Amino acid sequence: MADIAYRMLRIRTVILMITFEAIGYEAVKPTRSLSIQFILAAIMLGALYMSATCFNDVADEKIDKVNLAHDETRPLMTTNVTSRQLRNLGIIALTVSMVMAVLISPIYIIFVCAGQ
Q: Cβ neighbours of residue 8 under 8 Å, at least 6 residues apart?
């Protein structure tokens, strides 16, 4: 299941999101070291994106079977995973993002809900 989680993370996009987070963090609070909040926010962003890709792939399953039938980056299309497993992974990832949001600041739950 870890390989499916990694594929759903779509690492190139998450790296881009964390790069923008780093730029914003440095602009607002310049520092020589990373704070725990920065790390928690990066985990929150990655988990939130993973949940969104899981739920999107489940919702678009019928369309993707036609348009992306042989796309190796789509585990649901290559039958490596069931829609139920992908939905469960999305729920786990969403839960992780909510926990990270609360650890940063309870107000961040708004960002998680808006991002989903």
A: 50, 53, 54, 57, 75, 86, 89, 93
The pLDDT score that the predictor gives to residue 62 is 80
Residue whose structure tokens are 């790069």: 19
Largest CA distance in the chain: 49
Q: Tell me what pLDDT residue 56 has.
A: 87
Instruction: Render 12-29 in DSSP notation, one character per residue.
Output: HHHHHHHHHHHHHHHHHS
Q: Taking the model in full, what pTM does it have?
A: 0.83
Residue 32 DSSP code = S
The band of 48, judged by pLDDT with boundaries at 50, 70 and 90, is: very high
Contact 50/68 with Cβ under 8 angstroms? Answer: no
Exposure of 64 by Cβ count < 10 A (0-12 exposed, 13-18 middle, 19+ buried)?
A: middle
> Which helix (H) or strand (E) is 68 found in, with range?
none
Give residue-wise pLDDT tens across range 85-114.
Answer: 999 999 999 999 999 999 999 998 898 888
Please identify which residue in the block is written with the tokens 């139920």.
84
